Amino acid sequence: MDTPVSPAMLFILFLGLFTLIAKGLYILREYERAVIFRVGRLASGLIGRNGPGIVIIIPLIDKMVRVSLRTVTMDVPPQDVITKDNVSVKVNAVIYFRVVEAEKAIVGVEDYYYATSMIAQTTLRSVLGQSQLDDLLSKRDEINSDLQRIIDQATEPWGIKVSAVEVKNVDLPQEMQRAIARQAEAERERRSKVIHAEGEYQASQRLADAAGILSQNPAALQLRYIETMMNVAGENNTTILFPVPIDLLSPFTKDVFPGKAGTAPPAPAPEQSLKRATEWDSEAPSPPGRAPERSPSE
């Protein structure tokens, strides 16, 4: 005679079956993938394979690891670096990477996040140690490209794709900062002197052209004098110094110096000068104890 199944037994069986199904049923998001180990070997899910969506595995036999395929932003800690020109600096960076092959990221390395961080730190010290300080400050794009290429090649066997590496901050010693500031100040002063000298050169060329034009027409110079006087008088000055050209006084000098206006009186003839000198010598008193000299005519 069959023994009837009690309701408690049915409840226990139903609860165990539900637990087994819950252990083997997973829902993966769009950016997640499943790495399934069946008895220690790589395998796929019974339903849904490796995702995304619903993935069913064998409970108590399969073990599943979730792997995110989203881009990870990792901050590289500050590194003490000695550049090629023996300058000690402290540099930190940021790296962007993502998992492209979930199975390699789990099987190929124990902790892909920690391993990528260590590779980034060592590569940062190595690459910056081969660069000079000026290149580190001015050629930042080239250094970032070299870092991205080297780190990407090192993490490729792990199924990691490094999309970008950016040097974030460069801490210089105080002495080096002052030296760079002095260098920049000297460069700016040099540029200002060059610009000032170029302006003086151009101004001298324009002044030379203007002098050539004024020399061709003397009346233009007189008009320029008058214009300058008008400009000075309009500034409410009490004292005005104005140069008067000699040509303006030539009509008044005709009566004083006959002849051509603006010329000095004619010099005496040589015979008159000699006669006057002889007269002065004869009129001069003789020193005591000496007879006066007589002229040859006497």
Overview of this structure, please?
- The chain has helices spanning 7-24, 102-107, 112-129, 133-138, 140-155, 174-216, 218-233, 270-283; strands at 25-28, 32-38, 41-43, 53-56, 62-68, 72-82, 88-99, 160-171.
- It has 298 residues and is of the alpha+beta class.
- Among the domains are: 13-68, no CATH class; 72-172, Band 7 domain (Tetrahydropterin Synthase, Chain A, 2-Layer Sandwich).
- Strands 3-2-5 form a three-stranded antiparallel sheet. The protein has a three-stranded antiparallel sheet with strand order 6-7-8. The protein has a two-stranded antiparallel sheet with strand order 1-4.
- The model has no long low-confidence stretch (mean pLDDT 80).
Summary?
The protein has 298 residues and is α+β, with helices and mostly antiparallel strands. Among the domains are: 13-68, no CATH class; 72-172, Band 7 domain (Tetrahydropterin Synthase, Chain A, 2-Layer Sandwich).
CATH superfamily of the domain at 72-172: Band 7 domain
* Structure annotation, total helices: 8
- Give the neighbour order of strands across the main sheet: 3-2-5
User: Under the CATH scheme, which architecture of the domain at 72-172 would be assigned?
Assistant: 2-Layer Sandwich
- Rounded mean pLDDT is 80
| Global shape | rod-shaped
Q: State the order of secondary-structure elements, H for helix, E for strand.
A: HEEEEEEEHHHHEHHH
Low-confidence stretches: none
Give the oligomeric state of the chains in this entry, treating copies of one chain as homo and distinct chains as hetero: single chain
* Residue share in helix: 40-55%
Overall structural class, as computed from helix and strand content, comes to alpha+beta
Extended strand count = 8
- Distance from N terminus to C terminus (CA atoms, Å) equals 198 Å
CATH class annotation of the domain at 72-172: Alpha Beta
* CATH topology group of the domain at 72-172: Tetrahydropterin Synthase, Chain A
